[in-house]
Amino acid sequence: MRRRPTRRLLVTAAILAVAVSGCGSSDPAPTASDLPSLAVGEIPAPAQRSPSSTAPAGSAAAASASGDAASDDSVSDDYADPSAATVVVNKRRPLTPIEFTPADLILPDVPLATDGVNATLRPDAAKAVEEMFAAAADDDVWLTLVSGYRSYPVQAATYDYWVSRNGSPEEADNYSARPGYSEHQTGLAFDIGQDDGACTLRSCFRDTTAAGWASANAHEFGFILRYPEGRQDTTGFLAESWHYRFVGTDTSSAMRSNGVETLEEFFGLPDAPDYG
Ligand SMILES: [Zn+2]
C-alpha cells in the first residue's frame, strides 16, 4: 500500500495505547510517568440482562422476528459468541469467558502510532484495516493505528490506571472499560489516529480530516463507529470518534442503510449505560 514517507508518529506508544481508551479516551493524554502497573485488578461480577423484545426497524432482531427480506442469512445475528465478528460487548455483556483471547492475532501492515505493542487484530479485521488505510491514502488522508487488541491483563492495568488517576471508578467508567468488558479484548476493535498526531484519543479528534474520512467511509470496509455522539445511555461510553469496530460488511452496510447507530439497537439488546 502507499506509505507516506515522513512524519510517522511514534508516541510513547504502549503507554498511550494502553493507558488510554474504553476504549477509553483521554483528555489530556497521559505521559510516560503515568504508566500503570500491570497488576490485574478486581474483577466485577458479570451482570447481564435478557435481550429486550423490541427492536428497531431494519435491525437484525427485527428482521429475524419478522422473517422479512432484511433477514438475509449473510447478516449474522451471533452477538453472544466472542469469536463472531458480530459479538456485542458492553457494560451488561462481558466477554464469555471473561478472559477470552482470540484464536489468532496479527499485526496489520499499516502505519502505527505506537511501537506495535497492543496493535494486533484478528486476521479478518486486520485485512480490512489494511484496505481502509490504503483507500484513505488514495484520498490523501493519512491514518495511523493507535491501539488494537488488548488482553485481559492489559485492560485491567488500563482500567486501574484511570481509576487511580481520577480517584473513582464512577468517573473512570465513562471512558475506560473494566477488564472483560472491553471491545479491544475481542481483537475486532481499534483506535485510529492522524499521522500528525492531532488530538490523538481526545474529543477534538472528531474535527480532524482523518475522523471525517473514517466516519464517511469506514462502513465500506466492514467497520462501524462504535461510540457515536450522544449515545452513552445505550453504549455506556462517551463519544469516541477514533474507536472503530469490525463487524463485517454485511452488518456495517445493513446498519448504515437503515440508520441504525449502535450494535445494541441492531440486535435488539438492552441499553448498557452502566454495569448494572
Ligand atoms: Zn478504542
From TrEMBL:
Signal peptide residues on this chain, from the entry's feature table: 1-24
Ranges for domain D-alanyl-D-alanine carboxypeptidase-like core: 120-248
Stored Gene3D superfamilies: 3.30.1380.10
Record's keyword terms, sorted: Signal
InterPro entries per UniProt: DD-CPase-like (IPR052179), VanY-like_core_dom (IPR003709), VanY/YodJ_core_dom (IPR058193), Zn_M74/Hedgehog-like (IPR009045)
Biased composition (Low complexity): 50-69
Feature: compositional bias, Acidic residues: 70-79
Keyword Signal found: yes
Any Pfam family the entry gives: VanY
Region (Disordered): 24-79
Protein's name according to its UniProt entry: M15 family metallopeptidase
Source organism (scientific name): Arthrobacter flavus
